Amino acid sequence: MIAVVQFGGSNCDRDAVRALEDLGFDAERIWHEDELPAETTGIMLPGGFSYGDYLRGGAMAARSPIMETVRDAVDDGIPVLGVCNGAQVGCEAGLTPGAFTTNASARFQCEHVYLRVENADTKWTDAYDEGEVIELPIAHGEGRFEIDDEGYEELESEDRILFRYCDEDGNVTDEANPNGSRGNVAGILGESESVAVLMPHPERASLPELGSTDGRGVLAGFDS
Fold this sequence. Notes:
two-stranded antiparallel ribbon, glutaminase activity, ligase, Rossmann fold, ATP-binding, alpha/beta, 9-stranded mixed β-sheet, 25% strand
């Protein structure tokens, strides 16, 4: 069972459950003050505005009681995926390095973007080919990925960058970077391949009626 953790202010938890169920997974929303069910085989930290982004996106949710259990689950090899606000929570909780901060535009941005698959040899990306371009929506005001030089070099040398923002032809340019993220980074791995965070929303591009199924490959990582 995939536990979709619901914080006060989450607004993509139902979307995540619907998308995961459409892929054949058993998924359930779990309130952040409750325990993870014993049958948990995966954890998703969904998008939204946990605690109204008070202090900064994800900062308070990262200190919610359930996150200690999530860290223990990571140590046990249970896969964890953080999306949008969930990516902010993941970084704030130390599951992945770096931080997501205010967009370079200082505006909330809701639009479709192109992503280039940088590493197709992970559980979260093995449905794609390296260099493949997919299209996912974003909806965030604090999506700019920042990390120090040492951390960035480590991500690159260990091939832990999953996606970069690009144009339709796969060119990674400043113009294709919607929020000013360092190196156009849109998604990364933690120290373990079982943990990933990304700012775009795969669950919003997973059903034919949504106009795109490009995100299904990311969510399918819970089964690999």
